From TrEMBL, chain A:
Residues 8-103 form the Rieske domain. Keywords: 2Fe-2S, Iron, Iron-sulfur, Metal-binding, Nitrate assimilation, Oxidoreductase. GO terms for molecular function: 2 iron, 2 sulfur cluster binding; metal ion binding; monooxygenase activity; nitrite reductase [NAD(P)H] activity; oxidoreductase activity, acting on paired donors, with incorporation or reduction of molecular oxygen. This is Nitrite reductase (NADH) small subunit. Transmembrane segments: none annotated. Signal peptide: none annotated. PROSITE patterns: RIESKE. CDD domains: Rieske_NirD_small_Bacillus (cd03530). Pfam families: Rieske_2. GO terms for biological process: nitrate assimilation. It comes from Alkalicoccus daliensis. SUPFAM superfamilies: ISP domain.
UniProtKB/TrEMBL annotation, chain B:
[4Fe-4S] cluster binds at residues 633, 639, 673, 677. Residues 625-759 form the Nitrite/sulphite reductase 4Fe-4S domain. This is Nitrite reductase (NADH) large subunit. It comes from the Bacteria. Belongs to the nitrite and sulfite reductase 4Fe-4S domain family. Siroheme binds at residue 677.
Amino acid sequence: MNMTKSLIRVMPEKELIPFIGREVNVYGTSIALFRLSDGTIKAVGSRCPHTNGPLAEGIVSGEFVYCPLQNWKVSLTTGKVQAPDEGEVPTYETVIENGNIFVSI
Amino acid sequence: MKKLVMIGNGMAGVKTLEELLQRDNTRYEITIIGDEPYPNYNRIMLSNVLQGKTSLDEITINDWNWYTENNITLITGEKAIEIDRGEKIVETEYGKEIHYDELIIATGSSSFILPLPGSRLEGVVGFRTIEDTEKMMQAAQCKTKAVVIGGGLLGLEAARGLIDQGMEVHVVHLLPTLMEQQLDAPAARMLKKDLEKQGMKFKMEKQTEEILGETHVEGIRFKDGEELACDLVVMAVGIRPNTALAEKSGLEVNRAIVVNDYMETSDPSVYAVGECAEHNGMTYGLVAPLFEQGRVLAAHLTEIKSPGYQGTVLSTQLKVAGCDLFSGGDIHEDDETDAIVVQDAVAGVYKKILVKENKITGIVLYGDAGDGNRLFSMLKNETDISDFTTAAVFQKAGEEDEADLLAEMPAEETVCGCNGVTKGKIVQSILEDNLTTYEEVKTCTKAGASCGKCQPMVEGILALTLGAGYDAAAQKNGMCECTALTRDEVVAEIKEKGLQTPQEIRYVLEFKNKEGCAKCRPALNYYMRMLRPETYADDKASRLVNERMEGNIQKDGTFSVVPRMYGGTTTAEDLVKMGEVAKKYDVPLVKITGASRIGLYGVKKEDLPHVWEELGMRSGYAYSKSLRNVKSCVGSQFCRFGTQDSLRLGIRLEQELEMVDTPHKMKMGVAGCPRNCSEALTKDFGVICVDNGYQLYIGGNGGTEIRECDFVKIVATEDEVIAYAKAYVQYYRETGIYGERTAPWVDRLGVDTIKVMLQDEKQRTYYENRFTEAKDTYQEAWSAMLAKTQEKKMYEITRV
């Protein structure tokens, strides 16, 4: 299978407020973007595996986001749902260039 | 099976059966004949019902199921009128004939109604039954002046209850001092002073001669000719054992039905227990001795050996907030008693201990009754006090002393007087069922389940039994997974250490997770803004989704839009606009919400700012922890029953109290008359308009756990309603746990605490002003969001 990845520009960096998620739709794939307290930018699949909750709307703490619907805790680094719940969301690499955020997909 | 019949369905009798069934539930076929149409209820809590601290439903001890589950035949609303002791048959007023092998008479007692002219007028009640209590509460709804005859325990509790119900109350007492059976003169004087501060009025050394009125009470006249106008008279001059039936059937009756140590009457197959029984020349009217009698009788009926009933030394406490008193043993001095007295008029503390031959025989404590149980236990155990210095007798027991005392306490000694739970039973349950908290012990053993007075002792026994395994911290709940500190501790630390940001709080208070979690992030944000309205900037990132997005998230990730409709009112223009916007944005559902407003459901996130802008209306905060709506009926503007303009008041309330964050959502209601169409009695704050003003209610809930409001008082003007509402909400803001509705909050703090605050003008004004200061920092949410170009971007979804 061809695993070519491309970097897609999604938004200007300054538009992403720390801790407040943003949803972007890249060629039909919905991705949630977050800026953490240390300034790093994370990108994961935007829907919680539990009841499809919009992760971009969740509360962010450290490198985790809490799903706004049923409070599942999801790692923004690994995409793994934290115990006692189980599941995983896809993660995407992000790059910042010339003040713009790029997502690798 | 032998047939056991009981006449009477009150606390003492039913307790006897409970104890009996515990010992042996196969021995008897049981029938109860009770003339009150209720299952067994906790009569001692009636004064709490009247004082609005608890509701009638909550004082039921055995509900109907209990009787069914235990195969007990219960006949209620029917009197037993005849006992045929020869044939062993009880006859009822409707002609039932019930055969017995053993018969228990537990007919209790009735209020003693003074045989005065006019004592049968409407509006004269005793204070004894649910019916009496209901009559008093009804009277308080439409009448203003009450007289309580009798300044004893019951009379004072009734008087306080009527004040809580909004009445003006005079207590009439024959003697120069109150509660003369339990208190000596100095303590009684202090009590009277404190009660006067609470608004109670007294007519001392007054003998009532006549109750005035045509069909209904209009006043009373004393022997000295003075008259006092009133429209309710409560007789609380004592109780009279119900012995008529026993007398008629030829049993030995003195003041009450005479029984021996095994509660046997003069007929060995007939027993008497409770207030209708006389043992050793004594009759009892308090719950602990009656339960003790019940246990003795249960043992006897199941042929278990017991030393029998030996009489009870009594102790009492008054269930009136702000009057801390304890009385135990014989408090009357004579030539053989010595008295140790400590009096501190400044602190309002008075303690007297009577001593005979180095043993405590009587205790009167006023103002600080904390040592009551310890001293009373010394009295009962006949502890020799020669080893104690006087000071030590009075010293507030330190932790160590308390623990020593509990350790020395014999296993068979009763810890919970209401339910007769011994120390041994508690220890055994802790060990066998692995109990670790007071709540668990309460559930398993019933210790503390009635009046809760013994909670400190139960906790002490827990600590003693578990030793190092006792986790004091586990007794309380930390705020979240990040900290073991409770809400109160965190707030106290913020104040004390002057912490300015949530991050600072988490670092200084050593939260496990330095960025907090989904539970403490919103909570800390709330506490900070509550504490520092002027300097703390709200942190959107710490708001849960609904409050961050200013809309309620739906299960599919869309949102709802519910504009403000003050008091449930709208206009033709607004309706047209809402229709147009709903059409334009393809809104899948338009619905009248539970809070009588119009909601647009299923609005896409990206559309939210546009929808708000085009509607041009204020947010209804239907998603927030703040005031949702004030449900109002149309009131006197349109309704023929309306007594006041409830709609105008509802609109004003909503305007004055909207937007400000509270620990949880709040709903209010205003009803134009006691028909209560707007369901104000199950709201966080409710107002019932009446002819002479506005009745204020607090702490109701119609949600998860239905709770009826507690009455606070009647105020005369709309402005006062607003002032009280603001003070109440601010008090809730400053003492509530984030996420706690007012109903559990009121229960946690105690209705009285809140009432005392509201009735104290200085405090009320303080909280009212604090609320106003906070409100000034709030801006309407939707228009504010539309003005923030940066934050508004969070509604956008970038598409590539």
